Structure formats: structure tokens, C-alpha cells
What we know:
Layout: H1 2-36, H2 51-80, H3 92-127, E1 130-133, E2 142-145, E3 152-155, E4 161-165, H4 166-171, H5 174-189, H6 192-200, H7 210-232, H8 236-252, E5 263-265, H9 272-281, H10 297-304, H11 310-342
Parallel strand pairs: 2-4
Antiparallel strand pairs: 1-2, 3-4, 3-5
Helix pairs in contact: 1-2, 1-3, 1-7, 2-7, 2-11, 3-6, 5-7, 5-8, 7-8, 8-9
Amino acid sequence: MSEIRFVAHGVTLALAWFLTVNVAASALVAAAVGGLLTPRRRFRPRSFEAPGFWLTLRLLPAASSAAFVAVLFVPSYWAYEPREAAERFGGVTLFVLAAGGTTMVVTAFIRGLEAWRSAARRVRHWMTLARPVTLAATSLPAFEIDADRAMIAIGGVLRPRLLLTRGLVAALNDAELSASVAHELGHRRAWDNLKRLAIRASPDVLVRLSAARTIERQWAAAAERAADRVAASEGTAARRALASALVKVARSMPAAGTVAEPISTLLADADITARVRRLLDGDDLPESRGPEPRIPWRLRRRSVMPRLSAVRVAMAVMGVVGAFAGYVPLLRAVHEATEVLVNGVL
């Protein structure tokens, strides 16, 4: 019985720590977003344009909380917590924190499950009106939906399917259709549907703040730009074809905005005008930057060798040794902080 109480006490503390770290990380992310997107900010690194930057920022509270519990709290609890200490579960503060952590995790799971089920229902509905088609550009299962509205989407996470409507096929010429398919394949290669699901199922306090919606809009826009670059990598003709397809589809179907379900569509980002201008101007596209300059072999060798120098290797080894040396004191510090959490004022 004491072992069961010990484990139960550890789970309670883990949930309390998960919520505590989550609140702190969410506050930091919210403050960072306010600083990153301020109109007065003149310098914007290219990383701001990458979907991975915004996805990492959005998942950071949940990831940092889980990492803290798994890497620091659990080992410290197992190593330093006496078995008899589990007889006391702490006061109201610990109970409230643990209950809050439990609610946050369960709510996030339900939110992710609902997004998954909603997308599955939508795809099943589309499939009742669909017939299989063969596209030369991809081996991905493709289906044409019997609908007048112009739409193309990638549905599904584990078994993705390319869905395009009869209205889309009628509205676009061959080049525009190929560019639209290439755009959706860009979403497929980036696993954007899985990333949408991860965002929806992320257990954090950030979801309650406006900063979360800002980050999600930024990620959606960056993901669309990345998919545009995939489609535009075939050259100028492909860029223009995709820009034309965006205009035609936007006239037929309003932009969906940020999509919560794990479904990628051509118009997931509402800023169609900026995307079309970017495609026509060739901004931030592979061919607009020109070919990479050729570097002689000897110069390449000289530029690579310093990275493998003994100094760098020694610094890396010292860093690893230092991390291990500081790990045990850090576990002790986490245990002491846990005692403060258990013996709170309330």
C-alpha cells in the first residue's frame, strides 16, 4: 500500500509541476510574441518566415513542461523522496495545482480527439460524393468530389488522400491544376496535418491566450508559403500558374482562415493577395535567389575542416561532462523546490 501511495503522490506532484512550468512557459511565449510582432521592430530574421519557428513557439509550453517532469522531476522524486513521505499529500495548493494540471491534459486530449473526429467526418462525407482519379504528378490516392465549388485539400494524417472537386477541375487549366496539386503535396511532405493536430492537442495554458491564435495564424501563413515554394520550385511558369489558381479558387470559395482540423487546403491562409504578389514577384522563392556559387574543392575542404577541429571537439566534450556534473545538483534543487511546493502556505 505504501508503494501505491508513493506512486500516487508522485503523479500528483508531477501534474502540479506540469501546470506550474506550463504557466511560466506560456507567459514567456506570450511576452515573446508581443515583442516579435511589434510594428516598431525593424529587423526580422529569416527564421520568422519558417513554419518550424512558429510551430516550436506554439508547442514550447507543453514540450518544456513534459521535459521538466520527465527529465528532472521524476528522477529527483525517485532518488530523494522517502517512501514514508508519501503518507502526506500536501495541502490545498498542491491539490489545486494537480487538479489544474489534470484538467489541462484531459481537455487537450479531448480537443485533439474532437479535431481528429471532425476531420474524419468531413473526409467521410466528401468520400460519399467522390470517385477515384489518377494524377500523373503523384502516387497519393486522389479522388474527385462531385461538387461545383472549387476546392482541393489533403485529408487524413496516417492515410492522407488528395481531394479535389469537379468545380476545381473545370475552373483550372492543366498547368494551374498541376501547381495546385504540387502545393498540396508540399503540405503532405511537411506533415502539416499532423502538426495541426499536435497544435490542437497541445496541453498548455497558452491556448487560452490571444498569443496562441497569433502564433497559429503565423504558422499557417508560413506553412502556406512553404507549400507555395514547393509548387514554385519548377520555375517561373509554375509560379504564375499557382498564382492564377489561387485567384480563381479564391473567387469561387472564400479563404478558410486558420484551419483547426488536420486538413490542408489551398486557401488555409486568408492573405491570398500577399501570396499571389509573392509568387508573381518571385520573392523568397528558390529561383529568385539564383544558383549557389561554385566553390573550389580545396576551399571547401578548408571551410569544413575547422568545424572538426580539436578545439571544437574538446569544447563539446567539456559541455557534455559539465551537463552530467551539474545534473545531480540540479535534481537535488528540484527536490528541494518540490518540498516547498508540498509545504506551501495554503
